[in-house]
Amino acid sequence: MKEIDVHGAARKEMSREKARIMRKKPKRTPILEQAALEWKKRKEKERREIEERRRVQKGEEILTISLQEIIPQPRTLDHKTDDAMEWRQYSPWQKEEKKEKRPLNASSIWVFARKLMAREWARALGRRREDARMGALEREAAWYKAKKEEEKKRIEEEKRRIDPE
């Protein structure tokens, strides 16, 4: 029994209607060619069936892996070993992640050139380029220091309340 693809049938019907409105003759394969294609499909199917019967008679089996044969191995907690690898399931329906390319126009090229020139001048004048992470680390250190000072003040205040002398 032939399966009917609803979307394909709808597309064909829409294209036929569009062709009818535009008074175009529909493209049809000749009857002889259709018969030849059907014959070719039938012969191919028969050939595959014969090949399958021969394989079964010879005792050849298609290699398969049964789920019972797979022995689950305990996972190591140490991810830093050489054999630890991050495997990801490939999905043909999901596109691979690609880096987003920034559009290059005259203004972005100009800004990039200015940044390069500023870096070169700074290097020529002997200024060291600061690490981008240092600013965040310094802010974190200042916040931590302020938090510790507040905690010390709060502890001293509690001690004064308990022991008023």
Automatic annotation (TrEMBL):
Q: Where is the composition biased (Basic and acidic residues)?
A: 1-20
Using the UniProt annotation, give all residue ranges assigned to the region (Disordered). 1-27
Q: Which residues form a coiled coil?
A: 134-161
What keywords does the record list, in alphabetical order?
A: Coiled coil
Q: Which domain of life is it from?
A: Bacteria
Name of this chain's protein: Uncharacterized protein
